[in-house]
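Database export, one record per block. Field names are fixed; values are copied verbatim from the stored entry.
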Amino acid sequence: MTTDQSSPELTYTQEQVQQILNLAIAQQAYEGEFSYTQLVEIAEELGISPTALNYAAQALQTQRSELVKRQNFDTYLKANLRKQVGRYAIANSSFILLNLLMGFSTPWSLYIALLWGLRLGLNAWNVYHTQDEAYEKAFQRWERKHQLQQKVNNWLERLLSA
């Protein structure tokens, strides 16, 4: 391919450079992982300062730990929902059976099942709808609770080991 020497050199924005490099790295057939030394060498070749590289590495680590926390929170919510569904099934089947044994003249057990099912459905919506403010608030509460539990456990370990 020939290039015209009189044409101006192509320029790219920082975002375009990031996208191009991400695509190039993704297409590179490299088996294995990069060592920190290799990462530093690549950064030096790209003109990235060691400070910026360390900041980016720490930011990535923070993002990963946040992702793990959110996955643990989602697992907790789903396990809690499964328990609620189990309680709903056991209790309401018992109420319906009791109502049938009593003659089912007034279907009071269906009202309980309907109201409880409505509440269970709203809880399921909150578990699987993770893009709103209520989810974020619940996550913050859960995270604070676990941080407090960890601090108490650490304090008790130090107290018992002394």
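Remark 1: Residues 18 and 24 are 10 Å apart (CA to CA).
Remark 2: The helical segments are 14-27, 36-46, 50-101, 108-128, 133-161.
End of record.
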